[in-house]
Amino acid sequence: MSTATGELGSTSRAKMVGAVTLTTLDRQRSFLDGQAGATCLDLSEVTQLDTAGAWAIASFQAAQNSKGREVTIDNATEAQALLLRTVVEAMPSPRKRRRRLPHHEAGDVLFEVGKSVSSFVVGLGQTIGFFGLVLTRLATTALHPSRLRLTALTHHMQQAGLNAVPIVGLMGFLIGIVLAFQGASQLEQFGAEIYVVDLISISMLRELGILLTAIIVAGRSASSFTAAIGSMKMREEIDAMRVLGLDPIELLVLPRMLALLVMLPILGFVANMTGLVGGALMAWIDLGISPAMFRTQLAANTSVTHALVGLSKAPIFAMIIALVGCYQGLQVEGNTDSLGSRTSRSVVVAIFLVIVVDAIASIFFSIWGV
User: Fold this and answer.
1) Of residues 336 and 158, which shows the higher confidence score?
2) What pTM, to 2 d.p., does this model score?
3) Which helix (H) or strand (E) holds 123?
């Protein structure tokens, strides 16, 4: 194996000897590292030169040039010169650092706020347009009932409604227990344990039953709708529907929305009943209020109006959940990252809107004394 040596004369001339190849690359680079003051590389005694060796020479030359010391190559054969020139041309050019503008925190914050507001306004406009389109298709279907896909409607009623009965019932039962336990611990201080019945019934029937049901359904169904429609969007099935003259809104959105419109009030009723059962059970265990006494107090002091107020919000919640889930699914792009992002966003937006609408409805009913 040939070796490489160097000579540094008074003219800062470094001579490379032997093979300058991949097998001797470490020694050649060590040699070049010790020639920081050289202004000329003599290749007259180089027997072999490959791409790795040419890269080492070109890198050394570029490093010296960047420091203001120009290094020339002497006595290179025609083949060696061609290889060096090819390697130099292929090497990436050093990037110039961009001069950073002065950082203004107030300006950055204002820019981000404006960008967020602009995105929100654009998204709100698109959502309103989508809502109007769905209402148009719903009116068309009402005028022509034969266009409704009953098979898809039944399927989504089972998926979004019937399959959610266990989790909704369990949630209502546990919430009733929690309300009874917490209410009892507070009302016992005033000797008003019997009013725990009113606390449970009004809280469950008017607010918590339908609100928590809508939140659970939003987590289950909004994400499911977005994932299903988004997967179809990624596989270009929705584009195929349009090519065949089929309306994706009519085929994909309406059955899901109508299924929730039918099933969410039923799920809310299930949550209300299981909540009352859980509250009655806890009141019996903790306070000694028998089921008969609980039923009597419930019938005497709790109006059916409370249940109607709670269930009246169910259709609005159903439309919000269905529209948000389907809209986010139709916005999915052709990659899995977009699908995951839209699925998460649909759940967050649906739950947020459900809570906001519930707060507005509570204020409205309170003002009107309902």
Assistant:
1) 158
2) 0.67
3) helix 105-143
